[in-house]
Specification:
The complex is a heterodimer of chains A (637) and B (262). Chain A is an alpha+beta fold. Chain A is built from 17 helices and 21 strands. Chain A has a five-stranded parallel β-sheet. In chain A, strands 11-15-14-12-13 form a five-stranded antiparallel β-sheet. Chain A is globular, with a radius of gyration of 24 Å. Chain B has a five-stranded mixed β-sheet with strand order 2-1-5-3-4. Chain B has a two-stranded antiparallel sheet with strand order 6-7. Classes of the chains: A alpha+beta (637), B alpha+beta (262).
Chain lengths: 637, 262
């Protein structure tokens, strides 16, 4: 299989502009005749559905939540990047492009990243016009703050609730189109299969989560914006409902899965406290603007933090990376936190935590200013840990947060299955091996508001899409396979809750394919995961029936998919024998534990083709070329 | 602090919207105090599953207090007794050892029960759909800094916009009124210049939709504010009433100068 990225010709600055002119258009009067299915209502899905409806397409929007506003984009805290250069600190489209390519450790496509940087400024304009209440200065203009991996302040924010405000903006635009009759909204529907007819993606099978009914929906094109797969690790900062099911089922129908091993471990999360936990909670990277990360210099120093004098503290990020200090990219910060804890310098009961200390900032700026910037985060920390971060330093540790990998897409954001488009975290496209902070919101909205409205029109205008009805054998077949899998789950009748298998899988993933990976460990994981999967299908208990609201059935279905997908993630990590970004292979390092890339052998996108459960997937490679950013060893010193 | 706790749970069970519901009693023991309330319910459900019984249906997603999915009445109070807290952020250390904990769904005519502790809150989406937006299409926006906005207005707009749409305000209100929810959106957009062109139209349409969907009236009991996990102020209700009054008197299509936010 040849992977054609369809990157347009021309200079990097002009590719997108020129391509927009080259693309075919759909006549305004004909747009209504094209039905488009959008699955997912997070930033990417809601913005896409709203924008496509504004253009006149007949849009059907699906979410498994009770309301489009619940999507996990809502929990993004820190901010959204844009190359506005409002602070006059030297930012530009080119600098955002450069920072993002470098931040991703040279494993993303230059052309996609440049387009993202170009669009970034329009996103802020649009969101302000929607009424997103971004933080402002006394003069009435927008405020910015800094995020990791950049030496400029280009992050726009709405307190610690930026994702919420951006999502509500997109949600309100979506609900406006619902009110106008341009979008038909289907809530409490879980997508369980895509339907391919004569090589084109022509619909989906969903389960009505209230009645249990399986429904067939046909369309001229399908857009998946169903988020990331971080819950394969069980414990993560993702919402408990986040899952891989939609993308995994598309993968099983032929869509390639790209770079699944590129997962982001976020450095600043509230540490694990016990086996009972269902999820972990992020403390926004923005806190590293004012918080200083440190551990005691002596292993086993059990004094409370305020008793440890300045001279006996190890500010490891500031000391090792003087140029970027506490604002190094996430992969670097996480790895260093792990290193110091491995050396026995970690704090707290488990020794798996480092301090994030605000006492200097509180002295300098006053408690009120800190409360204004981070109040909701401090309150959240207090509730979870029962400790007041205004008085004692936060304890933090890395946790799974975001997944850069996803379904393979070309420059049009279309997968290798014609008609199947993939947006936001669900695709693999822009962040390479490590995403910079405040770039997920940017990418989700760029994809939904400003890219897919153009490229999907081009697809519809340049392809013949014959009429199809839902009694076509492909729909019947897809529905039957969904039904069969559901019946199989209900028929196991074991005695273990599905969650137990999820925890087991998560432990294997975290122990052998987490922040540091090596060949021996990955082999163990490849051995263990099929065993857990086998046990699941023998021992799981799924009570109730398929005929009504059955959350145990929903959850078991998602876990069953994670048990298949996890193996692919590990296989990808095993095959990529280099370190890059968040993918750290212990065999490939330089200096004091920095990731060492192998550009001769791994300067490519790894796109996997499904060959059957338990069968080895087939690897296809899309080579990456760097014509505008010089391939170098990343340094944040 | 590490002493394990025991509880008697009384969980509301209801097959569907048309069936009668009743409480099921479950004893929980060895609960660590730093376990969250929902994790404790997960454990209760896993115990039920191990016994081959159907787990109790309850909703949650982000489990960090922002998505608005979780919606439980705990001992008579929406989201429990901790102020400014969603039930997903409630921890067992807040309960006394041996306590009886009663868990019920939101109870309001406009939020019918679907099953057990799950209710249908799509009425909120319908209210937003009626007018809770700025009518701006993607593509034509001016530069983000073209209009300066007073910081205090942006801050007040943000205070109102912090609403997570959980519906605790409705569940807490003796009249099952949605005034706090609706006013939060009216006030958020009404404080910004971008919201001015549709200010009258928005408030009238949202209030009409709210009435139509079976929410009750406001009788100034302020239970909504007390229950709100984001501590949204009832002052927004006063602002909405004023906007509604003006709009009703003067008509919704009146051209309005940008006389500032108010």
């Amino acid at each position: 299989m040849i992977l054609d990225s369809k990157i347009p010709p021309g200079s990097i600055e002009n590719k997108w502009t020129d391509y927009k002119f080259q693309m075919k258009l759909v006549n305004p009067a004909n747009k209504r005749k094209h039905k488009i299915i959008v699955v997912g209502t997070g930033l990417a899905g809601a913005s896409a559905a709203a924008s496509l409806a504004e253009l006149g397409y007949n849009v059907h929007s699906f979410t498994f939540h009770d309301s489009p506003r619940r999507a996990h984009s809502i929990a993004a805290q820190g901010g959204i990047n844009a190359a506005k250069n409002y602070p006059n600190d030297g930012d530009s489209v080119h600098r955002l492009f450069y920072d993002t390519v470098k931040g991703g450790d040279f494993r993303a496509r230059e052309a996609n990243v440049h387009r993202l940087a170009e669009i970034s400024t329009q996103i802020i304009d649009h969101c302000v016009a929607q009424g997103v209440p971004f933080a402002r200065e006394y003069g009435g203009l927008l405020d910015n703050r800094s995020f990791g991996g950049a030496q400029v302040s280009r992050t726009f924010y709405a307190r610690g609730q930026t994702g919420q405000q951006l999502l509500l903006g997109a949600y309100q635009s979506l609900m406006r189109q619902v009110g106008l009759g341009a979008v038909k909204l289907h809530t409490r529907r879980e997508m369980l299969d895509v339907v391919v007819v004569d090589g084109q993606t022509r619909g989906i099978i969903v389960r009505n989560l209230v009645t249990g009914e399986l429904e067939r929906h046909e369309a001229d094109a399908v857009v998946l914006a169903t988020g990331g797969y971080g819950r394969v690790f069980y414990l993560s900062t993702n919402a408990v409902g986040c899952n891989v099911t939609a993308t995994w089922r598309a993968h099983k129908r032929g869509a390639l899965f790209a770079n699944p091993c590129f997962t982001q471990i976020h450095p600043t999360c509230i540490p694990v406290t016990g086996d009972h936990q269902s999820k972990l909670t992020l403390m926004s990277e923005s806190l590293r603007n004012d918080g200083r990360v440190w551990v005691p210099k002596t292993a086993g120093d059990k004094r409370s933090p305020e008793k440890i004098p300045e001279s006996e503290r190890f500010y490891f990020l500031e000391e090792k990376y003087p140029s970027f200090g506490n604002l190094v990219p996430r992969d670097v910060a996480s790895r260093n936190a792990k290193q110091v804890c491995d050396q026995g310098l970690g704090v707290g009961e488990t020794g798996l935590a480092v301090y994030l200390d605000f006492s200097d900032a509180i002295k300098r700026l006053g408690k009120d200013k800190i409360a204004e910037k981070y109040g909701n985060l401090f309150q959240m920390y207090d509730k979870i840990t029962d400790e007041n971060p205004y008085q004692v330093p936060m304890r933090i540790y890395p946790a799974v947060h975001y997944t850069m990998g996803g379904l393979w897409v070309d420059y049009n954001l279309m997968s290798n299955l014609p008609g199947l488009h993939v947006l936001g975290e669900a695709n693999f496209s822009d962040h390479g091996a490590n995403r910079l902070g405040a770039s997920a919101l940017m990418q989700g909205l760029a994809d939904g508001y400003f890219i897919i409205p153009h490229t999907i029109g081009h697809y519809l205008a340049s392809n013949k899409i014959p009429k199809v009805t839902t009694d076509h054998p492909a729909f019947v077949d897809a529905e039957n396979s969904v039904k069969a899998r559901q019946d199989k789950l209900l028929a196991v009748k074991g005695n273990k809750p599905a969650m137990e298998f999820h925890r087991q899988l998560g432990k294997v993933m975290w122990d052998y394919c987490g922040m540091a990976r090596n060949e021996a460990g990955l082999k163990i994981a490849l051995d263990e995961i099929p065993k857990i999967r086998e046990a699941f299908w023998k021992e799981v208990s799924v009570t109730g029936s398929g005929q009504d609201l059955n959350m145990a059935l929903e959850e078991a279905g998602r876990i069953a998919d994670f048990l298949e997908f996890g193996e692919l993630l590990v296989l990808d990590a095993y095959t990529r024998r280099e370190s890059c970004g968040g993918h750290f292979r212990e065999e490939s390092q330089v200096g004091e534990g920095e990731a060492l890339r192998d550009d001769n052998n791994f300067c490519h996108v790894a796109a996997w083709e499904f060959k059957g459960v338990g069968q080895k997937s087939e690897l296809h490679k899309e080579p990456l070329a760097f014509d505008n950013v010089h391939l170098t060893q990343r340094s944040y010193k | 602090m590490n002493q394990k706790l025991s509880f008697l749970l009384r969980l509301w069970r209801q097959k569907d919207g048309n069936s009668q519901g009743k409480f099921q009693e479950i004893r929980m023991k060895d609960i660590p105090p730093d376990m969250s309330f929902l994790e404790m319910l997960d454990e209760a459900n896993n115990d039920l599953i191990r016994k081959g019984e159907e787990p109790v249906a309850f909703e949650s997603d982000c489990r960090e207090g922002i998505c608005g999915t979780c919606s439980l009445v705990v001992n008579g109070l929406p989201h429990g007794s901790d102020p400014g807290t969603t039930v997903c952020q409630l921890f067992m250390r807040r309960f006394n050892d041996g306590a009886t904990i009663t868990v019920e769904p939101w109870r309001a005519k406009a939020f019918p029960v679907i099953k057990d502790l799950v209710t249908d809150r799509s009425a909120f989406d319908q209210i937003i759909s009626a007018g809770g937006f700025v009518s701006v299409n993607t593509g034509g926006a001016p530069d983000a800094n073209a209009t300066a906005i007073r910081k205090c207005d942006a801050d007040t707009a943000m205070d109102a916009a912090a609403c997570i749409g959980c519906g605790a305000c409705v569940a807490a209100c003796p009249n099952a009124s949605a005034m706090l929810f609706v006013s939060a959106k009216v006030s958020h957009l009404g404080h910004l210049p971008q919201g001015q062109p549709e200010r009258e139209r928005r408030v009238v349409r949202m209030v009409q939709k709210m009435d139509e969907l079976g929410f009750g009236n406001c009788s100034n009991r302020y239970e909504c504010e007390a229950a709100c996990p984001k501590e949204i102020s009832v002052e927004h209700i006063a602002r909405m009433n004023r906007d509604y009054g003006f709009a009703s008197l003067l008509g919704t299509e009146r051209e309005r100068g940008n006389s500032g936010a108010g």
